[in-house]
Amino acid sequence: MRKIKLAPFIPTEVEVNKISDSRAEIIAYPFESGYAITLAHPLRRLILSSSIGYAPISINIEDASHEFDSIRGMHEDVAVFIINLKNIRFKIKDGLDRVEVNYSFEGHKDIVAADLNNNMIEVVNPEAHLATLNEDAQINFSVVISKGIGYVPTEDLRDDIEEGHIALDAFFTPVKKANYKIEPVLVEDNPNYEKIVFDIETDGQIGSVEAFTNALEVMNKQLSVFNGVLDVNISSVQIKKSNDDSELKKYLTSIDSLGLSARSFNSLDRANIAYLGELVLMDANDVKEIKNLGKKSLDEISDCLIDQGFGPDFELSDTLRANLVKKFEQLKIKKDSSET
After folding, report:
1. Measuring CA to CA, which residue among 139, 194, 160, 175 is closest to residue 24?
2. Relative to the CA of 145, which of 54, 110, 157, 272 has its CA 20 to 30 Å away?
3. Domains and CATH numbers, the chain
4. Is residue 299 pLDDT above 70, yes or no?
5. Edge to edge, what strands does the sheet with 175-187 contain?
């Protein structure tokens, strides 16, 4: 006999199989029929389009004014030199978003990517070829390397580079492959459940698991815009029309719309604090007791409350406090019932 459900089955298992430093399988199951593809396809697109990488965006070569020039004693033309440079995959050290690095080579030499390593950047494909110099050759150049996502053509970069630099179209994406397959999985005696198997490979700028978690974070942030639907619904249906309507709506502002850092938001979310009014109801000591909330996060939350008009001298009336407590109890009951 088919059971009546109130909510779809929630997957419980996840596995990470590391194949190499830059490749991994991520497996999740069991999903009800149709749910696996619903989640897997947009995640794959985000992995490919939103993973952060690094790329050279401009170059200045001494004695070369454009990409169709040549350098005395260098086997490659400047155009080929630039193509080789764009094939080198960089990582910026120390968490910086952009750096400019200077290089100088002379004499007979086969320049490879490993020769570009220094205290500001690291290359992840050290054997890649850059240029070959004769005995009487000398080349001096500087490269601007930036952090970014996706692909940016030269037309969009020309206004952002220094005079004398040649703009380079930038391919930031560090993901070489992001595939998935849907496999059947048995749950009790039911064969109509599914498993997602992701196969992700990067070029080494970031790890494959990091690319996956970054995509999850992007998806969560994109979907958070719809959290406002709950607020609209609460405001239009559940709040009684009164002179306090506009004031109550302010207290029902969602936490994730306050612009808090990820660390502060996650601490509040884990403590089941969803609305601004719940913070207003708490005294300073209660806020300090929230798990994993450090001093920096406490200061950020305090500044946020002040910006919203709830400074140190603000006091709630007894009536408003009682109404808010009742309202949040009702919201919690509704949320719990919807999850069961």
Report:
1. 175
2. 110
3. 13-51+175-224 (3.30.1360.10), 53-171 (2.170.120.12), 239-339 (1.10.150.20)
4. yes
5. 13-20, 23-32, 190-202, 175-187
